[in-house]
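Field reference: "sequence" (input) and "structure" (output). Example, 3-methylitaconate isomerase:
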Amino acid sequence: MLVDLPVSIYRGGTSKAVFIDEAVLPSDLGDREKILLKLMGSPDARQIDGLGGAVSTTSKVAIISKETVNDWDVNYTFAQVAVDKAVVSYSGNCGNISSAVGIYAIENNLVKTSSPQTLVRVYNTNTKKVINEYIPTPDGRLTYEGDFEISGVPGKGLKIELEFLEPAGAFSGQLFPTGQAKDVITLSDGKDIDVSLVDVANPLVYIRAEDIGLEGIETPEMIDSKDSLLQLLEEIRGKAAVLMGIIKDPKDSAVLTPGVPKLTIISKPKTYLTKEGKEIKKSDFDIAVRMMSMQKAHKSIALTGALCTGAATHLKGTIPYELVQDREIGDKLEIAHSSGKISVSVKSEIVEGKTVIRSVSSYRTARKIMTGTAFIKGE
């Protein structure tokens, strides 16, 4: 027997997700996860029997409800559905998908529009943080017309600003989950490697590209083609998760905490070609980032990863901070990734001798792709 489920599909930034009204899902978490796995077609490397796109950036779900008590507009829960494992992770948020929550809220009459833009205040339940989304609505209408482009997405669209408020400690409750700007991890081969664990919008573990024999300008395909490299990166991520207190055994990382912390490889600027063949000159950006997502190389960059990196360059003692000391970045940082570049802005202040991150922001495009009914197999 097939069970019908009303859904929508939205692209947010460089990711795509199935959006669902929370009211149509069971409250029991186990029952809910069974539905999400069936909906996306997991576990299956092709996700052939569901709506998933066979990569982590298109195997995502956004669960939405209208807020009736607090001063934000909508509640948003992000679910990362593993492609080839029966795992649904609620650890951390997806910044790219966050950019579509505001337009979903407008499309479904969860907020009133204004002109020339509409502010949608989104509460992310994963991180317990508020995101201000500023959406162009000329004459109070959502038109999807715009001339803004982002790397990794063909064409132009609405320029949506996302401002993550008081974003520190989004997962761990602390700016530095280990209490330090830099830690040392001992690998299975006995070698030590420096890492920085920073939790802003999402927790990231930073390593220098040169420390693992990379240039920092590799394509996702180059990274994914080396099994030994993937194993090394997951070992580092797993041991970072132990340092954070998420798990006890680093070997459990891919199952128990597949999404966080996010392994992030960084390096100083070098001229390179994107995976689409476009040249990015080293003079045009401040830091190079190659991120991992669900044990594979991210095709571009997670928005929360870009935001965290922007904040980290303001935090003395971290590896990102050290890598940009020869550049005048101010409050804005230009990040280069596999598909191009992204700019992020950081508002910070010094309080009692410590840097406090007040907000991090950037711009994305997003749009509705379809609204309809999905059919999943019943019990």
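The chain has two domains: 2-167+366-377, 183-361.
Helices lie at 29-40, 95-107, 220-224, 227-244, 253-256, 303-312, 319-323.
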